[in-house]
Amino acid sequence: YCSTEHALCGKPDQIEGSLAAFLPDLSLAKRKTWRNPWRRSYHKRKKADQSENGLFSSLCSIGNMDRHHYETFEKFGNETFIIHLDNGRGFGKYSHDELSILVPLNQCCRIRKSTYLRLQLLAKEEYKLSHLMKESLLKDKIAPILYQPHLEAMDRRLRIVLKAVSDCIEKDGYDNVVEND
């Protein structure tokens, strides 16, 4: 998928992060739907955004294999952050790790340094992803949000993601994989 002939393989714009939010009504803030560049061809230097979106989806096991589109607010065109609608599939199957979601990371082998450092931190026992998620979700009015096996699956998937990055670094070298941001 990744080669120097494709603009998406360059040094892409930064994405602020992933979040769940209630979006304004379409009458207030129209959105534009774009075909996912990962699905067909590279477009508008979105490789890091798509790689990290896949990485986040993998941790949550969204398992949505129908990721053909993403959205942006119409006013800003395609030169802004991406909005990827989950349609409620998040945390669906704790026993299944959908590894194909990591294709952008595995094939292009590029990750932002800040993301990589954060993932390494979340793999440490004192900052374990499952513990931090559980603590954060306990504050929600409808707690408990996630079943313990879902939380444990996040730690397992984090190890899979870090192994994929490690394999990329071994193959291509740290400076070619980990992008300063």
Automatic annotation (TrEMBL):
Please give the Pfam families that the UniProt record associates with this protein.
Fam20C
Q: Can you tell me which residues bind Mn(2+)?
A: 86
Q: Could you list this entry's UniProt keywords, alphabetically sorted.
A: ATP-binding, Disulfide bond, Glycoprotein, Golgi apparatus, Kinase, Manganese, Metal-binding, Nucleotide-binding, Transferase
Q: What is this protein called?
A: FA20C kinase
Phylogenetic classification of the source organism: Eukaryota, Metazoa, Chordata, Craniata, Vertebrata
Gene designation per UniProt: Fam20c_1
Q: Where found? A: Golgi apparatus
- Amino-acid positions noted as binding ATP in the UniProt annotation, renumbered to this chain: 20-23, 71, 86
Q: Which residues form the FAM20 C-terminal domain?
A: 1-53, 62-178
Which coenzymes or cofactors are required? Answer: Mn(2+)
Q: Which PANTHER family match?
A: DENTIN MATRIX PROTEIN 4 PROTEIN FAM20, EXTRACELLULAR SERINE_THREONINE PROTEIN KINASE FAM20C
Lineage top rank: taxon: Eukaryota
GO CC terms in record: Golgi apparatus
**Which source organism?**
Erythrocercus mccallii
Any one GO molecular function term? ATP binding
Q: What InterPro entries does the record point to?
A: FAM20, FAM20_C
So where's the catalytic machinery, residue-wise?
66
Q: Which family does it belong to?
A: Belongs to the FAM20 family.
